Structure prediction request, 141 residues.
Amino acid sequence: MADENIHALHRIFIIAVTLTTAAEIVYFTVWGLYLFPEGNVAGKLVWTLTCGIAMGLVIGALTYLWVEERFQGGEAVWGAALVMAAVGSYCAWLCSKIDAQLGYFGGDENTTLFILSGVIPAILGGLLYGWLVYGKPAEAA
Prediction:
């Protein structure tokens, strides 16, 4: 039983950190290199990687604390999706405020687009996250 709990805990955190870090690498590439190439590339990379890992850890912790023991099946999928959507949306807003000071990613010039480019993937990614963590695996034939 304890091994199953540890396995579930690892799964929650690995999936959350993988998804958020992958999303941050996309943001780094699109916003940091393509749309706004000027500025400190190393600083942009450190910011996005740190943010991706930290966001994933927060999502994993909240999922474990709020969803894991409380919900099953579809409710767990929706609960995990809600956690990722809420944390990701808050981080998009917070990032826009920080970027307004640093000017790395053009968040000050394109605030609405910048926030939406974080909120929409957070919602869609939340659905994927919930399904990956709590969706039923396909039956082996």
